[in-house]
Amino acid sequence: MATRLSYAFGSIKNVQKFFFSSLATSQPESSNLVNFSNQNGIYKVQLNSPRTRNALSTEMLNELQSIFKVVNEAKVARCVLLSSSGSKVFSAGHNLKELTNETPKTHHELVFSTCTSLMKLLIDCPIPIVAQVDGIAAAAGCQLVAMCDIVVASTNATFSTPGINLGLFCSTPGVAVARSIPMKLASYMLYTGLPISAEEALKAGLVSRVVPAENLELETQQVIESIRMKSLPVMRLGKHFLHRQLKMDIMEAFKEGENIMVGNLQLKDAQEGLKSFVEKRKPKYQDN
Q1: Are residues 217 and 243 in the same domain?
Q2: What is the model's pTM?
Q3: For the chain, what is the domain count?
């Protein structure tokens, strides 16, 4: 990689202390399955179990839940960067060892309910979630990617829902995937189990940008930096409405959009942005 982002990581048991102890840059901590840091409101979350191909075990899912519960409540949070350690696998999905008949049905139920609880936290996240994908995103790993707002992928990335190959239809991953790409391609992925390339995922709308692997860190950093420079209340207002309007009739959405924009104009940051345009300078947002 041409550039490596600097991570300062923390343990889940100290997550509350970690996130609220500093509004600027967090202090280094240690973690087993998920690395995380807070640097000036940019919350970096890294799947860190290369030995299991970053499998979304119940333990990892619980760690991710703990992090996103805090992120969703953090008033200073501006953006989430979701990535993984290693360059071959973003996440291979659920830990299949937890899904055999050697574990009881109650544990199977726990695996999927825990994952669904995490999906709800991602849906409720008030700030943009940016995924950086370099390698395989399969099954629940592909589901996780599909739930992010922006996805920057390397040309090495592939996306698949291969459960059908093992006699287990990717039902829950299909919920996220089928809401992100056309049904014909979702059906291809779900019924055949075959992967699609990063370029195919880009054309379908599953990812936002595709770059060579050596440029992935730089491209992702540019996306994060662009988000960081925006007004925080406007960004939160915008994301909330963008997702809410999808459930509305189109004319209802337009009418509600009118109200949102008029309200947006009452914010000091909106007036500062307009004033800076007239004065041909960069805006100085106060995030209020």
Answers
A1: no
A2: 0.88
A3: 2
Instruction: Provide the β-strand partners of residue 196.
Output: 159
Q: Per residue of the chain (288 residues), what is the pLDDT tens digit?
A: 333 333 333 433 443 333 333 333 443 344 589 999 999 899 999 999 999 999 999 999 999 999 999 999 999 999 999 999 977 999 999 999 999 999 999 999 999 999 999 999 999 999 999 999 999 999 999 999 999 999 999 999 999 999 999 999 999 999 999 999 999 999 999 999 999 999 999 999 999 999 999 999 999 999 999 999 999 999 999 999 999 999 999 999 999 999 999 999 999 999 999 999 999 999 999 987
Tell me the residue range of the domain where 243 lies: 232-278
The secondary structure of the chain, three-state, reads: CCCCCCCCCCCHHHHHHHHHCCCCECCCCCCCCEEEEEECCEEEEEECCHHHCCCCCHHHHHHHHHHHHHHHHCCCCCEEEEEECCCCEEECCCCHHHCCCCCCHHHHHHHHHHHHHHHHHHHHCCCCEEEEECCEEECHHHHHHHCCCEEEEECCCEEECHHHHHCCCCHHHHHHHHCCCCHHHHHHHHHHCCCEEHHHHHHHCCCCEEECHHHHHHHHHHHHHHHHCCCHHHHHHHHHHHHHHCCCCHHHHHHHHHHHHHHHHCCHHHHHHHHHHHCCCCCCCCCC
CA distance 115 to 100: 17
Residues 194 and 215 in one domain: yes
